[in-house]
Design brief:
The protein has helices at residues 9-32, 37-43, 62-65, 84-92, 144-151, 164-169, 176-198, 220-227, 234-254, 298-313; strands spanning 55-60, 72-74, 79-80, 96-99, 132-136, 203-207, 258-260. The chain is α/β, with parallel strands linked by helices and 315 residues long.
């Protein structure tokens, strides 16, 4: 299937730069006044109006599918019945619900059967009567797995000083990860265009990625210990995640979709925190049978679901 970008690279770079300013301000505001989605809901004096009955389809990668979180309902795709789409559907009680998210998915897997999983092209789940679509994609396009492999240090390897990961990805004078994020933007735009084509009456949500790394300097040692990354690389990796979410937010606005901020609801529950406070796991999950390393655990998926429900409640 032919896929074309909807804007020139030059215009997209300019828009992304403008979007980055707004996103950075929003993230700073969130960092200054963090609150979990659950506490925000409990403090609200206004009743939450549930949206109308929906025909809901969930698309996405492993941050959507919920690897190892009980109960796994599709092992090749490491898909959980307690991931954020399923929790959202439990709240919505939609007329129909189909979750086709799959671990390791990229934007290419929206159009094709995903190799090694048997998961059909995710876009094929969309119908003319689909009224709600959530999309969580982009991390594998920029190489999440590769970044983890190159920037972390498993036992018994010592964790070096400095910022070797940043140096590796910027050695040519250009930030390679920032470039990958830029190149993924048009791919996300194409997916959104195809969603609107196949489900013209659907409200489309682009779901961002949760907070991985603490915003607080005093948590640096916790990040180093839990994630097995050099302290000097923490700012770079944190900024890369911010840039990825900024791009997704921008493409959502440009593509007639709504961006769901899952970063703010998960602030203070990153992989650098104590084992009881973590909603995102480090290199060794608190319970390896119930969460995958460097992924949300059950609490994290619930926090992401709160972000989705919050967005839907605002209309």
């Amino acid at each position: 299937m032919s896929r074309t970008s909807t804007a020139s690279a030059g215009r997209r770079r300019a828009r992304l730069a403008l979007a980055a300013c707004g996103a950075a301000a929003a993230l700073v505001a969130g960092a200054l006044a963090p609150a979990t989605a659950a506490s925000q809901s409990s403090q609200s004096s206004q009743p939450v109006q549930r949206p109308r009955a929906e025909h809901y389809v969930a698309l996405g990668d492993s941050f959507t599918s919920g690897p190892f979180i009980p109960t796994q309902v599709n092992r090749p795709c490491v898909r959980s019945s307690n991931n954020y789409p399923s929790l959202t559907a439990g709240w919505l009680t939609p007329a129909s619900f189909q979750d086709v998210s799959c671990g390791s998915a990229t934007t290419d897997d929206m159009w094709r059967e995903q190799p090694g999983t048997g998961n059909p092209a995710q876009l094929d789940a969309l119908k003319k009567d689909t009224t709600l679509v959530s999309l969580g994609i982009g991390g594998n396009d920029i190489g999440f797995g590769e970044i983890i492999a190159r920037c972390t240090y498993g036992w018994p390897r010592p964790i070096p000083d400095g910022n070797p990961c940043e140096q590796r990805y910027t050695s040519g004078g250009v930030d390679e990860l920032a470039e990958r994020i830029m190149q993924t933007g048009p791919k996300v735009a194409d997916v959104l265009q195809e969603i609107h084509k196949r489900s013209p009456h659907a409200r489309v949500l682009v779901v961002g990625y949760p907070s991985f790394i603490s915003e607080r300097p005093e948590d640096a040692e916790g990040c180093k210990t839990s994630m097995r990354i050099p302290v000097g690389d923490i700012p770079y990796l944190r900024e890369t995640l911010r840039n990825l979410n900024t791009m997704l937010s921008h493409e959502a606005r440009a593509g007639g979709a709504t961006y769901v901020d899952t970063f703010t609801p998960t602030l203070g529950h990153d992989a650098c925190r104590s084992r009881d406070d973590r909603w995102v796991e480090g290199m060794v999950p608190v319970n390896p049978r119930e969460a995958m390393l460097f992924h949300p655990n059950a609490k994290g998926e619930a926090g992401m679901a709160e972000g989705v429900k919050d967005t839907l409640s605002r209309g």
